[in-house]
Amino acid sequence: MCKITEELQQIAAELLKEGKVDLVLGYTKGEQEEQSVPCIVTQPEDASKLIFDEYSEKALSKYLLEESFQDKKVAIVLKGCDQRAFKLMQDESRLGREDVYLIGVECPGMKWGEDLSPFCLHCDYRTPAKEDVDSLLTGADIPEAMQGEPLDHEDSFTDINRLEKMSKEERFEFWKRQLNRCKRCYTCRNACPVCTCRVCVFDRENPDYIDRAKDQMAQHQFYHVIRAFHVSDRCVSCGECARVCPEGIPLHLLNQKLLRELDKFYGEYQAGIDEVPTPLSHANADEPDFFGKEGKA
Amino acid sequence: MMQDTFEPKIIAFCCNWCSYAGADLAGTGRLKYPENIRIIRVPCSSRVDSALVLRAFQNGADGVMIAGCHPGDCHYDTGNYHTRKRMMLLKSLMEFMGLDEERLLVKWISGNEADRFKDTVESFTSKLKKMGASGKVRDLRCAK
Asked: Residues near A63 by Cβ (< 8 Å), separated by ≥ 6?
């Protein structure tokens, strides 16, 4: 058992015993060996169920918005990207910091099939900042690839660069091939830690922007453009959308494209690390004007 | 032959305070502009969500035009700054997905610029005529 898991179980048991929190939200071993699933622990003796390993990729912060947690004091296990999502929700007044006990953990890099997740290889915020959490657990077994400096940020856009070099028709065919596999199961939306609207535009029946029609390229396009747009400036680059997609559609490309455009024109911004407002929630006169240099006629 | 008879459908979202007044002035001044344009009055150009733009394309528009106040002239101070930010992103995302981003036009037209309104509609219509019908984002539910 690794050091973080041990300390985590200790802290969880203490918190529950002292009655500081009503429940602890963390990960436990799933049915398969290479799987960790979210779990809720309410009794100190159950704290030994908790673990944290390289399969604990699911973001937990979004659970805090669930109604059943509203009147409870919750302790939650957060790795770097997850803590960014939490901070964003906190800054947007969706959550109160004082209602939650944060257990920050050092992330060893999550698995992506056999390999390490490409998102983790590029991540420069694996461990939450000490002042942002109530207790911080470090000492994870960091794989060799994760040690040292994270990969260059520009590398993470390699796929985008490849796509951008294609002609427009080729790009259209590429996305047609990809998006036509979409079943619109909404897993990408549900797994995204920053996709947190109370009522999602896709759940509304009026206006009927999209329905459950399967072979409808236009509806797939609509869904994916709007989904990417709604999280664009708030994306924490965790890569969950692409990981959970049962059809393996590279959804993160859309998000990264928008992030890159925002960085290019409005300065670099990292959601959940930099101060709010996020780039798209404010606008002012100094920003570049793309639509009309000629001024008034 | 098709090229000659093709009449593009253009949905124009016009800001209530500037561009709609500009279109109105073009009307009272008896300026003739192509009838391909269908104007939808919006309280501010920033009211135009990316969903509305895509929805217009899905419903059969060949072009979408968003007309707002000149930067600095917004009735609500910052509305058109939001518009240009969002629409720049939407255009780059459309381009990235291989859609025809040039079918989306954003233009600043004030209340006394009837000529500019007319010129914009004319040039956009002739551009779309050259491009032909848009078929990449059609919602089959809306097909006649």
From this structure: A25, A38, A69, A76
Kindly determine whether residue A221 and residue B54, on different chains, have CB atoms separated by under 8 Å. yes
Residue of A281, A279, A275 lying closest to A84 (CA atoms): A275
Domains identified in chain B and CATH numbers: 2-134 (3.40.50)
Residue A289 lies in a domain: no
- Residue A24 — φ and ψ, nearest 5°? -115, 130
Number of domains in chain A: 2
- Residue A227 sits at the vertex; the CA angle it makes with A221 and A230, to the nearest 5 degrees, is 135
* pLDDT computed for residue A296 by the predictor: 38
Question: What residues make up the domain containing A260?
Answer: 153-278
Inter-chain contact A175–B55, Cβ cutoff 8 Å? Answer: no
Chain A's closest residue to B114, CA to CA, is: A297
CA distance B132 to chain A (A): 15
Whole-number pLDDT of residue B4:
64
CA A64 – CA A101 distance, rounded (Å): 11
| Phi/psi at A41 (5° precision) | -115, 125
Cα A297 to Cα A172: distance, rounded to the nearest angstrom: 37
CA–CA distance, A181 with A281 (Å, rounded to integer): 33
pLDDT along chain A (297 residues), means of 10: 90 94 94 92 94 92 90 93 94 90 94 88 90 91 84 77 91 93 92 92 84 80 93 92 93 92 92 90 90 55
